[in-house]
Amino acid sequence: MTKKQSASSVRDKQTAKSGKHISDEDIDFSDIPESTDEELKHAKRVGRPNSDNPKQLIAIRIDPSLLNKIKKMAKRKKKGYQTLIHELLEEASHVVEGPT
After folding, report:
1. What is the dihedral of CA 55, 59, 60, 63, to 10 degrees?
2. C-alpha distances in angstroms, 75 versus 6, 25, 53, 66, 81?
3. Is the residue at 52 inside a domain?
């Protein structure tokens, strides 16, 4: 049984196939204004910060109702739901293994 592709993913693949690669030198940036010193002073770095102990990215499937409960619990505790899931799994691993 083949997996049915969504219309958007089919469209994205068609666009990617038909699109020509443009080198950085060939991109016209003339309509983008230069950033002012004031703008740069208030700029914030985006992206993941460097870490001595980075987490590994995984993908899991969770029942939507369970995920909603976890998100609500995380909101009450004023933390991200992924952080809460990490903490819950860490607690559960101590129960299984015992204290380290």
Report:
1. 110
2. 32, 46, 25, 14, 8
3. no
pLDDT, residue 48, reads 79
Whether the model pTM is above 0.70: no
For the chain, the 3-state helix, strand and coil shares in percent, each to the nearest 5, are 50, 0, 50
79 token code pair:
């933390």
Give the position of tokens 């740069």.
40
Please give the mean pLDDT across all residues of the chain: 85
In a domain, 95, yes or no: yes
User: Has residue 75 been placed in a domain?
Assistant: yes
37-80 per-position pLDDT tens digit: 999 999 988 887 888 888 899 999 999 999 999 999 999 999 99
Unique residue bearing structure tokens 């369970």: 66
> Rounded to whole angstroms, how far apart are CA atoms 43 and 26?
27
For the chain, how many structural domains are there in total?
A: 1
Within 10 angstroms of residue 80's Cβ, the number of other Cβ atoms is: 12
